[in-house]
Every structure is written in structure tokens, then in C-alpha cells.
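dude i think i finally got it to work??
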Amino acid sequence: MEKLKITDEMKTREGCLAIHRRQYGEPVELPQDHDAPDIAARKWLQIIIFVWNGGRIVDFSDKSYIKYWPWIKFERSPSGLRVSYGGYGFGFAYSLVGARLCFFDSDHAKMVAELFIELYKDYMLVKNKITLETAKTYEDYLEIHRELYGEPKPKHMPTEHDSPKVAAGKKLEIIIFVKNGGKTVDFSDTSYLKYWPYFEYKKDSSAPSGLRVSYYDFDSGYAFSYVGARLCFFDSDHAEQIAKQQIDLYNDLMID
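look at this
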């Protein structure tokens, strides 16, 4: 593919937004006045990178080409913490950031990081930033989903009209998708095991139904499961962790 010609308009975030609107339509996510600095910076970077990628998003299921993302270097200085471009990482089928923050071209990764270093600073230097290691609630995982994979499709988002069972199922699907690294297990691929938790029912007079479930163990299979693919895991430890962490959602899902 012919290398993208870099214009002066692409060197400002407002210019990138204008190009996006003119050539590709309105961005999926626009920075809002009420956004926290890291959220606004992430939205701006996604717009900028989309434009610098020529209106494309890298596809990690396609291993025929390398994907790039910038490394940002942090240094202490008399005036405080200084950030600068420190190189780039790359991979065929993985990255340390979401697809919308990756590049097709290593030179573009370097140029964007240097031109928009303050956005990277706002994006990366946030106290109490939610990560996969610190996420505990559905809201935490939803925030990560939005950051790494974009807004979930409307049909997968719980609504106020959903029953507790339906809402719990939708929330768990979002949580598990994030925990699975943005992937859903494929039962037509028998080359790897799929895992799902199973539960023990216990009497509980404080519960509306008189029953509650608690994590008991996990099960696995290559080409089958007792639950849908969106509720299965690639890793048995993740199945156990989420089952224990989100036990209230599993109770809503499993007990009418």
C-alpha cells in the first residue's frame, strides 16, 4: 500500500478531527467537556491514529503484517515528571495497548508520539487508573472495554428494561470478553481447551429465592460446553477469578 502523505493539518488534533469528519465521517467517540483527562486524551489519540492509519484500524486476527505502538519514557526533572518518545513496540498478533492505539507504520508511531506527547502524558499518568489487575466491578471492566475495544454493541449492553437475569448475562459477557483479551472462544477450533465455572447451590434464607450459588470448580472442553461461548474462558484461572469476583452476577444469572 502506498505510504500516507503527511500534511500539516495532520499535525494538530483539531486538524485530524477535521480530516476524520471530511473523509471518514463523525468519530465513534468524541472528547467531552466532562471527560477525565485520561479519557479525553484516549479519545483524541484514537481519532489522530485513525487518520494517520489512513482510516483503518489494525486487525490482530490478521498475522500477515506487524502492528506498532509507541513506548513513552518517563523521567524525573527539576520541574517535575517529563515524558518523551522512547521507541516502539511491535507484534503480529498482540500488543500492550488496544487496536485503536496501534499503527501500521513504525515511523508514524514515532511521529505521532512526538507530536502529541502531551496527550500521551495525560493518557498514561493517571492516579487510580483502572487496569485488568485492579478491575473489580462491571463498571471497571466496561471502562476497559471502551478504552481498548470501543463501545460494546447496543444489543450487548444491559438496559433498565432487562430482567436481572438478562442484565447479569450481558454484564458477564462484557467482563469475560475483556478478561479474554478482546476475544470469544471458538468451539469450531478444537486445538485448545475452553473453560467455564460451575457452582454449588446452597440454601440461604436471606436470598429472595432461598438459594444462592457459590464457586465450586471449573469444567473444560475442546468442542463443547454447558454455557454459551461468550461465557467461556481461555484460561482456567480467569474462570475461577471471575466466578468468585462476580458471584452476585452469577447468582442473578442462574437463579430465577
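The chain has a mean pLDDT of 86.
im so relieved honestly
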